[in-house]
Amino acid sequence: MSKRKKIIIASVVCFVVALTIILSVSLTVGSFENRFIKTMTNLNYDVTTHFQRVYFENCTSYCTYIDAYRVSPLGSGHDDYEYVNVYIFQRKNDATKFYGKSMTEKTDYERIVQKGNKVFIGTEQGLLDFKI
Fold first, then answer.
1. Residue ranges of the alpha helices (H) in 43-129?
2. Residue 106: alpha-carbon gap to chain centroid
3. Could you read off the pLDDT of 24-36 as tens digits, one per residue?
4. How far is the CA of 99 from the CAs of 51, 85, 125, in angstroms?
């Protein structure tokens, strides 16, 4: 096999590997959003996806966010509402900064959890409903 054919084959293999990685990352991001929307909608939450990117002062990257909100039935003995906000950062380091800042501003009824580049802020029941 000539040197030129080997270079062409190697280039094609590299292109296919790169394309596979890009597609798998894209599907993973989409699958998280789809899973969140499906899970919370099935539990009677109103879900809003925000496609604009929000820049936080403490961080160096933008994030996107999704929120889910549900009014509790009257007489349930719980607070009037349940909610979950998910902040998806480009970098885990920025999620960690945002998590730290959020913990200093946390209210008594909020629970805050960081998982990788995502920060979840919501009521205890809201996060339990999403299995966080």
1. 92-104, 124-129
2. 19
3. 544 445 688 888 9
4. 21, 12, 19
| Alpha-carbon span 82 to 92, nearest angstrom | 26
Structure confidence by residue, pLDDT tens digits, 120-132: 999 998 999 998 8
Contact between 89 and 64 (Cβ < 8 Å): no
Q: How far is CA 62 from CA 48, 89, 93, in A?
A: 18, 6, 12
- List phi, psi (to 5°) of 112: -125, 130
Dihedral sign, Cα of residue 96, residue 97, residue 99, residue 100: positive
Least confident of 52-61, 88-97, 98-107: 52-61
Whole-number Cα distances in Å, 11 to 3, 6, 16, 68: 12, 9, 9, 45
Q: How far apart are CA 56 and CA 40, in angstroms?
A: 26
pTM score of the predicted model:
0.70
Residue type, 49: T
